[in-house]
Amino acid sequence: MARVARLRRAGYDPYTMADITRIKTKTPGDTVLMSGPNTGGHWVDGMAKKVGFVAGGTGITPMIAIIRRILTKRLDVELFLVFANKTEEDIILREEWDRDVRDHPNFHCYHVLEQPPAVWTMGAGRVTDDMLRVHLPAPGPDTIVFLCGPPPMVEALEGTLKDLGYSEEAVILP
Asked: pTM, whole model, 2 decimals?
């Protein structure tokens, strides 16, 4: 089985390097570094049989291509998405996730909202170890977890995933 090591360029933080948070300060004619489109990103077919995705807000972006590739190719892979947002309106591609759950029995999606509506049947507040334990695949040799979101969330959940038994090699930061 192919494995991908930690995908983090040493010393590079897109938040402090201004790639993400300072785009609004650019004016027409300024140069910006862009990448993509990405058609599968950090996924290599056969690298795992069970794949967890933990995303916060726009952290879902690198995971979309991976999920689409696996579902489109109908690979024998079980997918588990835990997607955290502030409000229900903030859920990127909500209708597509709902459709994917209906159309693909190997795709599971659990939403966590910081400010859930009065009637809400999924997670409320922040992502917890209990949520991850229930809604991600169990740690194992054929399991990996992609993690992407705001830096404080990623830092906290990296430790949580380690405490839950996921090896450092099994947690990928796209």
From this structure: 0.78
Closest CA to 147 of 56, 17, 77: 56
CB 108 within 8 A of CB 101: yes
- 50-77+84-172 sits in which CATH class? alpha beta
Residue 95 confidence class, pLDDT cut points 50, 70, 90: very high
Confidence (pLDDT) at 26: 75
114-136: string of b/e by CB count within 10 Å (b at 16+)?
Answer: eebeeeeeebeeebeeebbeebb
Tokens of 158: 């990296």
pLDDT tens readout for residues 113-134: 999 999 999 999 999 999 999 9
Closest CA to 137 of 157, 158, 108, 160: 108
Contacts of 69 (CB under 8 A, 6+ apart): 39, 40, 43
pLDDT digits (tens, 9 = 90+) for 12-48: 444 444 445 566 677 788 776 655 444 445 788 899 9
Please give the full DSSP string across 29-40, using - where no structure is assigned: T---------SS
Q: What is the DSSP letter of 54?
A: E
The residues, ordered by sequence, that sit 6+ positions from 45 with a Cβ below 8 Å of its Cβ are 73, 75
